[in-house]
């Protein structure tokens, strides 16, 4: 049961900039798809358009091949987990889970059976008669899942479901969601601003920026082959290096990378380099024959973080670059603040034109 | 034809609010009810007051008995409001900042004038100070008149309006906490100075709100004052009592002329109340 | 807050304690105790005879039934007005918002005079209602009308903040689970505002029981027919029957006390039900 979104646009005030603008993508059946982007990118609005809480100005929403753009939210049969959980405070856990079934006027014994099944699924069998106010954050979250799943939804939509929890509970629940998905196989759409979360639990990622789709693909695609400077800078904590086109290649210190064919000789390029894609060396010897001039950076600061050392380099161009070096390697280098080091870029994403934020 | 539309607040989505038809029906019924019960009576007061023209109106509110009723009403308010203001501040400070034995009882007693019928409020003072009352013979001996005289009216008014300032200031003080007061004390400020410079400015809108409500009730009170007044024309009649007397004498225009003054008071109260709410939200 | 055993850090404890108790003692405690002392001047049979006299019973019945009718009307219309004020934006909304408090601000005598004139047989409303055969002024219906006016703000002002506090998310969640707007209202919103409705109802009811100024004009004050309890007290006072007035007053006080107790228990119950946190 895939979700297909075609050219969706939603503008909140006439003449204002749209919250969602001409968005098309496909969430494959049975997979977890993440909608990833900074806050204000239009992810939540997109989710609300898909479940029917917002009506699009233009565009269509297809769930399982069926056009449900005109279908009211009540009839769409989608499970939604809200960021705030939106549990009914005056109802017990059981009553919360049974709500969608009672509304559908299912026979009582069927409702009871389904609620029991859901309580088992989210491992809250013992807490059925509690009120939401008596539960911890993680427990409330699981009640919200159970309530959404009880109606046997065609798809599951999650709006920042772990946003309000502390880190440890977040990680546990992430693992739990993974298992839950394995078991239910439900097509799931997850809205998140946390790239770690998106890359870790989804099979498909849609990166959004300013109401538009910036890139859609597998987590590896997004990480290794960012399609735009925005995606490259948003994912992976990359630093920017500037260079220019030399002999048809982008020259970044000792590294030459291929550039799009349209690039002219001498044109400015910029590259996004991830902290672990730079190798540091003590060598200050002159460049060998045929070798391009390597980058020489000065160590501004360094700070051990767990098994790694974070080194901040100042390049001759003035750019600041963050490099992550395994601890043992850094100790072997034996550099201190102020030392010059040779920085070899292993790989980078290159874009033509000067970098501007 | 121009028809004003009923908008939904921005945060709402249209899917959940029912059809426009439902919306229109609900708003129409609600506004119709309010028109019948609030707006028309409001218009009626002024319409009845002016039914014999401007001159009759001015005569009705300028005659000596009306003037003395206005004076007595103002006097009762001028005594009751400051007394209850001082008491209200002290009691709110006490109840917001300290836990002590008898606190719950004190709260209940402070609320009592709200929950007791105004008639009973009058009655208790009659029982104390009336000729058959506990202190009646003593007062009679010294020719002091409380019941059927001005002091009784003032007493009943003070009683009826006692909770207003406390009830408005207490929640404000409670939500604001006492961090700033404690900071002032560590900086060497005296207790008085702390109260005047820190606490009072923090709760000023709550105080003002309480004073406005207290004043409106003080000027408009009928039941309690009626019981202790004795209805001596021109001597122990406040404005509401004066309106009653005129009405019972079938001087409807006169009664409503007096009533219109009280209605103006109510409208001014509502405007001030709105203003205070607006200012306290802004700050 | 500082525990009782420790000395208070904040200044003014003794001063404010002394001032408050003195004021409350003089103005509330002593006058009110005079009421109970007066009651004890009656023997039990005398007391019982006074409070169960046919005229008193008729007055209880009228006060109770008219207050109940008014409080119920306030529940229905108060909920409607609160709903409309919170949920919809329409021209004149902020004016309506302020006007709702009019019955609190308007002296009750003015309300009584005006409603009586409007509903009398030649009044703006009365002439049409009487053509339909409905007499309002000088009947028990009139008493209920005046009490409805007086109690209007209570339900609106208790329900409104609760309605405002309900998260939109909760309604949206109900919709995604398949609930129609009506189901969302009856199953999700209404249960959430029931405690507020109940306390609004009780406040309006208690206020109506004690109300005097607005009713005395419209009721016509016929013993056994349109005489409310507070009026009976005043009548007895005017006949210098202090003991009789006091006995009736004590019965009324007990009734309002029970009502207030009910409000408090209700609020505590709903508070506990919704705000409970697990101790685990």
Automatic annotation (TrEMBL), chain A:
One of its GO terms (molecular function) is ATP binding. InterPro entries: AAA+_ATPase, ABC_SmlMolc_Importer, ABC_transporter-like_ATP-bd, ABC_transporter-like_CS, CysA_C, Mo/tungstate-bd_C_term_dom, P-loop_NTPase. The keyword Oxidoreductase does not apply. It holds the Pfam family ABC_tran. Gene3D superfamilies: 2.40.50.100, P-loop containing nucleotide triphosphate hydrolases (3.40.50.300). One of its GO terms (biological process) is quaternary ammonium group transport. Residues 3-235 form the ABC transporter domain. Keywords: ATP-binding, Nucleotide-binding, Transport. PROSITE patterns: ABC_TRANSPORTER_1, ABC_TRANSPORTER_2. PANTHER family: SPERMIDINE/PUTRESCINE IMPORT ATP-BINDING PROTEIN POTA, SPERMIDINE_PUTRESCINE IMPORT ATP-BINDING PROTEIN POTA. This is Sulfate/molybdate ABC transporter ATP-binding protein. It comes from Myxococcus llanfairpwllgwyngyllgogerychwyrndrobwllllantysiliogogogochensis.
TrEMBL record, chain B:
This is Sulfate transport system permease protein CysW. Part of the ABC transporter complex CysAWTP (TC 3.A.1.6.1) involved in sulfate/thiosulfate import. Probably responsible for the translocation of the substrate across the membrane. The complex is composed of two ATP-binding proteins (CysA), two transmembrane proteins (CysT and CysW) and a solute-binding protein (CysP). Keywords: Cell inner membrane, Cell membrane, Membrane, Sulfate transport, Transmembrane, Transmembrane helix, Transport. One of its GO terms (molecular function) is ABC-type sulfate transporter activity. It is a multi-pass membrane protein. Residues 70-273 form the ABC transmembrane type-1 domain. The gene is cysW. It is found in: Cell inner membrane. Its main location: membrane. It comes from Myxococcus llanfairpwllgwyngyllgogerychwyrndrobwllllantysiliogogogochensis. Signal peptide: none annotated. One of its GO terms (cellular component) is plasma membrane. The keyword Kinase does not apply. InterPro entries: CysW_permease, MetI-like, MetI-like_sf, Sulph_transpt2. PANTHER family: SULFATE TRANSPORT SYSTEM PERMEASE PROTEIN, SULFATE TRANSPORT SYSTEM PERMEASE PROTEIN CYSW.
From TrEMBL, chain C:
Keywords: Membrane, Sulfate transport, Transmembrane, Transmembrane helix, Transport. SUPFAM superfamilies: MetI-like. PROSITE patterns: ABC_TM1. One of its GO terms (molecular function) is ABC-type sulfate transporter activity. Residues 60-263 form the ABC transmembrane type-1 domain. It holds the Pfam family BPD_transp_1. This is Sulfate transport system permease protein CysT. It comes from Myxococcus llanfairpwllgwyngyllgogerychwyrndrobwllllantysiliogogogochensis.
